Prior knowledge:
Layout: H1 10-14, H2 26-37, H3 48-54, H4 69-74, E1 79-80, E2 85-86, E3 88-90, E4 96-98, E5 109-113, E6 118-122
Amino acid sequence: RDGITVFNMRKVRAARLPSVNGHASAAALAAVFDAAIADGGSAPLLTSDMVDAARCVPDGTGGGGDGMGQAALRGDAAAFGLGFSTHEFMLPDVTAARSIGPAGVGGSVVVALPKLGLTVAFV
């Protein structure tokens, strides 16, 4: 079996592997990340300082990088911070918005843009 379908096997799901056992719809993933970053009538679960820390990519020296770090030097499409992949998007007003969100096995992606209060998920 290939690496993608193995995670849909009943015995693998029953193993409850924390790093690969998330099963959710795109709407549910977007709702979770939206609660983490957006002000939907109550305080977001993550403060802006927490989001900044999560986007901090280790630079290989034991310290944090600028959010893109060595991954940008390698030409990777996304850098990986403390538990989240991070991307930078250029907005129409020519300012940058940095995202957080994981990419999962099989192509699922969550992109949360705290600056815009916007979350998009694909499963």
